[in-house]
Amino acid sequence: MDYFVRDIDPEWVENLNSVLDDNKLLTLPNGERLSIPPNVRIMFEVQYLKFATLAPVSRCGMVWFSEDVLTLDM
C-alpha cells in the first residue's frame, strides 16, 4: 500500500486523478504511461480537505475520526 501523510494540494494531487480512477495509469510529464498493478492501494491521511478539489475527492473513499476518538497512544 502506498501511503501519503500530507495535506491535499491541487498542485500535486491533480496528477494522480488517472491513478485514482478506473484507468489506474500514471501519466508522466514526458507522456509515458505507467500502469498501476491491481494489488496496489493508495491511501491519503489528511488533517483537512480545505484545499482539495472535487476530482480527487470523488475518486476516494472517506473515513473520518473525531479528535476524541483518536489518541497519541494509538
TrEMBL record:
GO biological process: microtubule-based movement
Record InterPro entries: DHC (IPR026983), P-loop_NTPase (IPR027417)
GO CC, any one term: dynein complex
A GO term for molecular function: dynein light intermediate chain binding
Name of the protein described by the UniProt record: Uncharacterized protein
Organism expressing this protein natively: Amphimedon queenslandica (Sponge)
